[in-house]
Design goal:
single chain; alpha+beta; Aminopeptidase; 7-stranded mixed beta sheet; 5 helices; 7 strands
Length: 194
Amino acid sequence: MVVRCYEPADAPLLKDAVDSSIDHLVPWMPWALEEPQTLEQKTELLRSFRGQFDLGQNFVYGLFSRDESEQVGGSGFHLRVGDDAFEIGYWIRASEDGKGLATEATAALTRVGFELCEVDRIEIHVEPVNEKSARIPQKLGYAEEARLRRRLYAPPGGEPRDTVVYSMFRSDYPGTPSASAELEAFDARGERVL
């Protein structure tokens, strides 16, 4: 799998991945309630993601097949959890669900977060009823830190949802399954950095 910053030219791949997965995504991803979007809307979204990425405001990644002919999901580092910390989010295309791709991407981003970005803390937020998603931080050595009531978006006609926060500190990272994740990481110039 290839994990990389989006380019506006990825809009058709993103649209295909999301459009084929709407029913799969709606229970967990609030943005999926706004789908399907037009190709033009996807292009503008990716331009926004790229701009935020280049300005260091938010780091949204596309997950692509090895040959980059298909988008298999999305992930990213979000800065909304405080200084010197990232939150990792993820989603997987319905046809690729259950293949370990979210675990693989999350392990890779954990390594990059601690080893390249040198943050002190990484969090993953999961709805308590989303057991498949909760297994990812558990497998990778994250600790369950808290259950926060009514913190996530409310579905139409419903109440805000609870979230479970998993966290890992840089001091906890060595020896975890995340630390041994195999990957190659490259900077914006294409030079290998991990």
